Amino acid sequence: MNKLPLLILLAVFSYGCSTSYSFTGTSTGNAKTISIETVTNRYPLTPPEYTQAFTEGLKESFLRQTSLDLVKSNGDLQISGYIEKYYSGPVATTGNETTAQNRLTVTVHIDFVNELEPAQNFSKAFTRFQDYASTASLSDVQDVLLADITDQLAQDIIQASIGTW
Question: Which of 9, 73, 81, 85 fits a 20 to 30 Å CA distance from 113?
Answer without folding.
Answer: 85
